Amino acid sequence: MEYVFVVTYGRSGSTLVQGMLNAMPRTLVRGENGLYVQHLFRAWQAADDIRQKRKGPSAGRPTNAFFGINSLTRGRFVRNARRLLVGGILGRQDEKDVDRIGFKEVDWHQITPEETEPFFAWLEDVCPGAKYILNTRDVEQVLGSGFWQRQDADTAMAAIKRVIEIQDHLRATRPDRVHETRYEVITGEDRAASDAALTALAEFVVGRCDPPLLETLRGTLAVGHGPNPFGKSRRDKKGA
């Protein structure tokens, strides 16, 4: 199994990217889930903290208050976290039908600066070889959407900047496993630039992009995604 995650902020066109990924062969990328894997990571951090303090020969005796703490290992916790993550993504989908899975998320800002690298190191134990799609869009356009307008301006900007910091961290630490997508390029009027972006995305995810796949991805651009479907808006403008 291969893993791919979309790292971005709200109203960046991430649902469209999600649609692109699901249009690719044997690829299943789910939508937002509240970044629940962060809670699994923090559960391990809490368990490991007490384990480091209380492990030892005495913890192997049933009379000890921390009896069994020695049995709590990172490897065992990771394997169980992987079952939870994979099962949550697959749902009723047969694992035999997909080669790569993942999700897109906009809540990455919840990861604190101090836990950034520990979190991604842990995530990659759970999801070996994880790839990251760093989706971006003009921040002024993003902040102008209804979603962010309902938020406090400083809070909204802080959340977006935090995601950008995380994207920068992934670029610096995992350059061979990140790929950039830009909303304005994918959806732009420059057909050649859009096609090049779609081709590069497919090559990053599935390793190829033949003409039929490119045509499938082009078709995805005409389908509405998210709360204010870009595809529908474009058709409305053409009809105006």
Task: Describe the fold and architecture.
- It is a single chain.
- The protein has helices at residues 14-22, 36-54, 74-90, 116-126, 139-143, 146-149, 153-173, 183-186, 191-206, 211-221, 230-239, and strands at 2-7, 27-30, 100-105, 131-136, 178-182.
- Mean pLDDT is 93; it is low at 231-240.
- It starts with a strand and ends with a helix.
- The chain is built from eleven helices and five strands, in the order βαβααβαβαααβαααα.
- By secondary structure, the chain is α/β, with parallel strands linked by helices.
- The chain has a five-stranded parallel β-sheet with strand order 2-3-1-4-5, with helices on both faces.
What is the global morphology? Answer: globular
**Proportion of strand residues:** 5-15%
Series of secondary-structure elements, N-terminal to C-terminal: EHEHHEHEHHHEHHHH
Total number of helices: 11
> In which range does the helix fraction lie?
40-55%
Residue ranges: pLDDT <50 for 5 or more in a row?
Answer: 231-240
How many angstroms does the end-to-end distance come to?
A: 46 Å
Whole-number radius of gyration?
21 Å
Overall pLDDT: 93
Largest sheet: 5 strands, parallel
Q: How many β-strand runs?
A: 5
The spatial strand order of the largest sheet comes to: 2-3-1-4-5
Task: State the secondary-structure class.
Answer: alpha/beta
Write out key terms for the chains shown.
240 residues; alpha/beta; five-stranded parallel sheet; 5 strands
Quick summary:
The protein is α/β, with parallel strands linked by helices and 240 residues long.
